[in-house]
Design goal:
Blueprint: H1 2-18, H2 31-54, H3 60-80, H4 82-85, H5 89-103, H6 107-120, H7 135-149, H8 167-173, H9 176-185, H10 201-213
Helix pairs in contact: 2-3, 2-6, 2-9, 3-5, 5-6, 7-10
The protein binds heme C.
Length: 215
């Protein structure tokens, strides 16, 4: 309860600090719906991270960070995907197999299973795509980006364990599905905003649009 109150205060504060219509993805959908989309996004990120982890060109330190990030993602995956798993008993055993494959370094098999799940439960990109954002939205997106993101996500240096990679480079180089998935599930809230991403769909489409056009 206290957490809910704190979260609401934080959301109001964040909304008014940015001074605009930017409030807040989770208010617009039910928690189960939010978790389902988080599940779709997490599967896509896991696949993307797995591909990076399998590349020889990925620096060792970054690989170490990717491994621990994936490890913790597998720790919560069945929980955030429960909206799918609970409705389909066959899926339960499939999800149960993912983490052991990761631990056993059976990356090819894991990749295939992730692919299967991503195709079965595609992320709905509709409201996140850059063309959804109006000029006014984009102004808000720029403010959010410059105020809350830019400072950490400026340089694209992957020689670190947990790099804050350039969002501009990510927007321009990743497939829309993967960039949006990372914008949905890769931006973590904190204790106050209940560990949820504070960005709304509109915020994401606006920031995406701005980054793609950025010179
Ligand atoms: C205090 C520094 C900081 C700020 C501010 C910050 N980030 Fe991050 N961000 C990070 C770090 C560090 C990581 C890498 C964490 C990890 O690998 O788990 C990260 C990860 C991410 C990822 C996932 C990247 C990936 O490789 O999957 C996305 C997307 C992202 N941030 C977007 C944003 C956006 C959008 C904002 C502004 C609303 C923002 N971040 C604000 C430091 C920051």
């Amino acid at each position: 309860m206290l957490r809910t109150i704190l979260a609401s205060i934080a959301l109001i504060f964040l909304g008014s600090a940015i001074g605009a219509n930017s409030v807040i993805g989770i208010k617009q959908m039910s928690l189960i719906e939010y978790d389902k989309q988080l599940c779709n996004a997490e599967l896509i990120i896991l696949k993307g991270d797995l591909i990076k982890l399998s590349k020889i060109t990925t620096p060792d330190l970054y690989k170490k960070g990717l491994k621990s990030r994936m490890d913790s993602a597998f720790g919560t995956l069945n929980w955030i995907c429960r909206g799918f798993i609970d409705n389909d008993p066959n899926l339960f055993s499939l999800f149960e197999k993912l983490e052991p494959l990761f631990i056993a370094n059976k990356f090819k098999e894991l990749h295939l299973k992730l692919d299967f799940l991503i195709k079965k439960y595609p992320l709905n990109l509709d409201q996140y795509l850059p063309e959804q954002a109006s000029k006014e939205d984009i102004k808000v997106g720029i403010k959010i980006y410059q105020h809350y993101c830019h400072g950490c996500h400026l340089s694209h240096n992957d020689q670190l364990e947990m790099p804050a990679l350039s969002l501009e480079v990510m927007a321009k180089s990743l497939a829309p599905e993967e960039f949006i998935a990372r914008m949905i599930a890769g931006v973590k809230g904190n204790g106050v905003i209940a560990l949820r991403n504070p960005l709304s769909r509109k915020d994401i489409s606006s920031i995406y649009s701005y980054l793609l056009d950025k010179k």
